[in-house]
Design goal:
GMP Synthetase, Chain A, domain 3; cell wall biogenesis/degradation; three-stranded mixed β-sheet; 26% strand; alpha+beta
Amino acid sequence: MKQLIETIVLPLVDYPNDVRIETEESDNRVVYKLFVHPKDRGKVIGKQGRVAKAIRTIVYSAAGSHHKKTYVDIVD
């Protein structure tokens, strides 16, 4: 899943070396924390959060076969 998120995010940003994804996993959920350069945060979130919503939709549908709830957080 991390690779899917990177595949989506890397073409959007100006500082691809600063993209980092951390995973927190518990019994019933998985949280992917996406870290980007501060100047790229707006590009990843998009106007009115449309890009972030699209990223989350793709990741959620890809993780649909898992039995754990999946979350994607864009971290400051």
